[in-house]
Amino acid sequence: MKQTAPANVLIVEDDRDISHLVELHLRDAGYNVDIAYDGADGLERALTKAYDLAILDLNLPGVEGLEICRRLRAKPSYPLILMLTARSSELDRVLGLEIGADDYLIKPFGIRELLARVKALLRRMEARSTSSDLCPEEEKVIRGGPLVIDADKRQVTLSGQDVNLTAKEFDLLFLLACHPARVYTRAQLLDLVWGMGYEGYEHTVNSHINRLRSKIEKNSAHPHYLLTAWGVGYKFASRDTWGDN
């Protein structure tokens, strides 16, 4: 039976007591763990080494956690991000999720809950190791007029020009394009793309759709591909309209 390599986890947390406690329990659970005590070191480590998961405090010296999250999400390949925050306001949580965090925990938190979140995130990553898992069809390259979505390369081009998408933007676009004319609710998209039901944070989907429209539509106010199903959610245009743009 094939052995799965232990996941590589980066902890970016300036509170050394919390860092060492989390490290101890993660190592006991079988993970490889590195620690950074400030944002600059954490960002450098995350950009230079392949991690499966980053446990990231928001309030860091040097470079704040939200900026680290933003920088990582601009890369084609990046780790899962579990945010740790003492900030309890909904605005901070929504902002973190919109930037691209996969989950969050509010301090103080229990170690058992953190380990459960870590395991759930890593299981989801393993179960859906490629974006093609979002699409049950054999088709790996989707062509919609001038828009081309390549699942294996995780690349999108528009009229031959590369479109720079974050990983979550790509996954969202690919899922919708795989099922043209099918309407998804925001809750369904959160569950399928983000992997968890972020109840109360459906605005995250709206923000990603708006950014996608700004990148692939000629006129984002009158979209050709990414359509709104009013009162329900979103859908990708039906195939018979793809060549009209």
UniProtKB/TrEMBL annotation:
Which Gene Ontology terms of cellular component type are present? cytosol; protein-DNA complex
Q: Does the keyword Transcription apply?
A: yes
Molecular function in Gene Ontology: phosphorelay response regulator activity; transcription cis-regulatory region binding
| GO BP field | regulation of DNA-templated transcription
Sorted keywords for this record are: DNA-binding, Phosphoprotein, Transcription, Transcription regulation, Two-component regulatory system
Matches recorded under CDD domains: trans_reg_C (cd00383)
Lineage top rank: taxon: Bacteria
**Would I find ATP-binding among this entry's keywords?**
no
- Which Pfam families does the record cross-reference, listed alphabetically? Response_reg, Trans_reg_C
This protein is called DNA-binding response regulator
Organism classification: Bacteria, Bacillati, Armatimonadota, Armatimonadia, Capsulimonadales
